[in-house]
Design goal:
The protein has about 200 residues and is an all-alpha fold. Helix content is about 60%, strand content about 0%. The chain has helices spanning about 15-35, 40-60, 60-85, 110-120, 130-135, 145-160, 165-190.
Amino acid sequence: MRSMPIRDDNWQPDDEIFEGILRRAAVNAEDDAARDGTAEYMAGLLILAVLAVLIVGIAKSASAAVLICGIAAGLGFLYMIVANKPAKTDRASALRAIGGPGRLPAGYLVHPAAWEAGMAEHVAHIPESQLHASADMCHLFPGTVDDLLTFTGTIAAHLPMTRHASAADVRRRTHELVRVGTPILREYVKTAPPLPKPAVKGKKK
């Protein structure tokens, strides 16, 4: 499992709407995975009850009905224990309703709940230096996680590739990507047009 990159300042996004989406996605994923077998047990009990009535009617012996039904119940219970294993939580599809983890705002690249909802699987193919550089720049980036990863990957494609075999190499490469990308983002934030404000109620646009 890919570990979540942690920023030096421990910054994380805080948005009530996306926090709610992530909580609901986690709950839905757990609900889909949970199988307690209640319906199967109830159906088995109903079958045993019908079987007991038939045995009593045919054999005229309550003890025979109890013995046969007890054996059948035991075998059925053992089968349920073996066959009714909880399904594996489909973490990667927890945020499918919004287009996947990559459609979250860029800051959620460093949010634990997003990683629990499939972000770890989503960025599994990203080189370590690019992932950490994206984490360092995610608080400035105005787009989505996927947009940020593309931005960092484009910078990496234009920088000469040095050794990438040790932790020191990864840190060095990360620093290079951040050094090039951060001024570009800061300049864009200064010159980008402001987001449109909602119209005031009762006034014409």
